[in-house]
Amino acid sequence: MYQPMCIILAVLLSLISVCAQAETSKVIATGGATTIEGSAGGGIVPWAVINGYASSDQWSFTAMNTAVYVDDFTLHSIGASLSIDNRFELSIAKQTFDLDTLGGKLGQDIIGVKYKLAGEVLYTAMPQISLGLQYKRVDDFALPQAVGARNDWGVDIYLAASKVYFDAIAGRNLVTNLTLRATKANQIGLLGFGTATNNNYQLQAETSIAVLLTDNIALGYEYKQKPDQLGFAEENDWQDIFMAWFVNKHLSVVGAYVDLGSIAGFEQQQGWYLSVEGTL
Asked: What confidence tier does 25 reach under pLDDT thresholds 50, 70, 90?
């Protein structure tokens, strides 16, 4: 499934290179970064913001390449998103999860849509609120099925609220986000969806908070609650401390220290996250 995904990315890039407007009016950093799942947000948590810098009647295209290195595993994610009118976001991502210690790899494709329901992250008293869907499908269901997963695909549904508070901490602006996600995913979907005995949605909370040290540099923290459904190994919540540098409206870099807890019986999976993102 990797090759079709790359073809879709190339087609989107060609299309938006022609259609995207060169100048956009959104303030730098207000599009957030791109998560490992392809949608706008932090590193592991989707936010209510719409990716890129397209404002009303504008288009924006974003592409990202992300790597997460922990003790026994490596996650690579490439993705792209198309934003329209600062209201609608369509995203795709390809994840490859290398089992460095065990050998072998897992992977999944993710197609996401997000729609801004109300509010503005900067200009209204109420937070910006967006509704998102993510369709996920694993590349090879053999291992997830062997450890008890029910399905090789699933749909996550989330509601996110994001707000910037001006002069909140020592004169610096504060970015906050709360996301509620309904999911059946095991290890964000890499180990399939649901279990042989339970196919119900689990409601999980995810949050992000960041201080803008300057207009284009943010220091923040994220926490991602995750369901613990598979009996063969404990699944822990994820968290990270990140630094984001929005070099300009066309380039951003995010680095983070990540703690992914226990994965497939391997305890204390900690390490580093690096993401580079380009925007038209």
From this structure: low
Mark out the alpha helices in the chain (DSSP H runs). 2-19, 142-146
User: What would you report as the CA-atom Rg of the chain, rounded to the nearest whole angstrom?
Assistant: 18
pTM: predicted TM-score of the whole model, two decimal places: 0.89
Q: What angle do CA 56, 59, 65 make, to 5 degrees?
A: 130
> Following DSSP, what letter does each residue of 205-234 receive, concatenated?
EEEEEEEEEETTEEEEEEEE------TTS-
Provide the residue type at 155 as one letter.
V
Report which of 89, 81, 46 is spatially closest to residue 62, judged by C-alpha positions. 81
The residue with tokens 């003790």 is: 71
Q: What are phi and psi of 103, to 5 degrees?
A: 90, 145
Alpha-carbon distance 221 to 219, whole Å? Answer: 7
The region, left, alpha or beta by phi > 0 then psi within -120 to 50, assigned to residue 22 is alpha
Looking at residue 73, its amino acid is F
- Three-state SS at 29: coil
The string of pLDDT tens digits covering residues 204-214 is 999 999 999 99
